[in-house]
Amino acid sequence: MRIFKNVAIEGLNKKPILTDIGYLENNKPKPIIIFLHGFKGFKDWGHFNFIMNFFIQQEFVFIKFNFSFNGGTIDQPLDFPDLEAFGNNDYIKELNDVESVLNWINTNTLLPASEVNTQHIFLIGHSRGGGIAIIKASEDTRIKKLVTWAAVSDFISRVSDIEEWKKNGVVYVENARTKQKMPMYFNFVETLLGNQERLNIEKCEKKLKIPHLIIHGTHDEAVHFSEAENLKKWNPSANLFLIQKANHTFGISHPHLDNEISFQAKSVLEKTLNFLKGN
After folding, report:
1. Hey, what domains does the chain have and what are their CATH numbers?
2. 243-277 burial string, b = 16+ CB within 10 Å, else e?
3. 265 and 272 Cβ atoms separated by less than 8 Å
4. Parallel, antiparallel or unpaired: strands 212-217 and 143-149
5. Element (H or E) spanning 146, and its range?
6. Rounded Cα–Cα distance for residues 217 and 150 (Å)
7. pLDDT tens figures, 153-190
8. What is the dihedral of CA 265, 271, 272, 275, to 10 degrees?
């Protein structure tokens, strides 16, 4: 198994995208999975390294990365040392990062051509990353399959108190784990409202022409499972898999230090693997 940690990819946002890339060295062209983390997330959260190793063992090239404005830095990729970057993040920047990683796959010198099948690129997105994955998959023909875990089905409805936000220029969200007050500047709203057509998840889901697996927990406290049902309603050909009593992170918290995962998280991986391996 070959894993490259914390590779800095230069992206469209002119800010490095810190990336992990892994694969089995067996000279067999393998499909590529790109994993997108969610809001207040990062590539090394919880069991994400476990997930990476799981898919590498199943003969996928696995790529996960920190969105360039997620609040991490090259020196401190975990948590959120750069709150100014976090505050200036927006959905278009995240879509730019996915585009940059996709472009990197075809231009890099790190992945041997004998190990990758660039005709089979799959996206997995969790939570807000699921919404980003739906949008990108709807507009980029390089993506051949899509999996979303606990994904949001709408961005606009999550914005509230716009006038107050505009007046103050910033709102703060608390990170329950680190206790940081994390800023979100009003340009986040301006970018969202200025790109409503592109960022409309319903329209993007209806436009999808590739297989989509939707996985959601029935006890999700952050994104209600009715949002998964919305995605299925908009795209009847999608596969919907509800995990009974699973929460937003499928029974995992950060840090996750042992080598075992919850039965809900195992169920997510097994269902995802079968979907991605299928024809």
Report:
1. 2-155+204-277 (3.40.50.1820)
2. beebbbbbbbebebeeeebbebbebbbebbeebbe
3. no
4. parallel
5. strand 143-149
6. 7
7. 999 999 988 999 999 999 999 988 888 999 999 999 99
8. 180
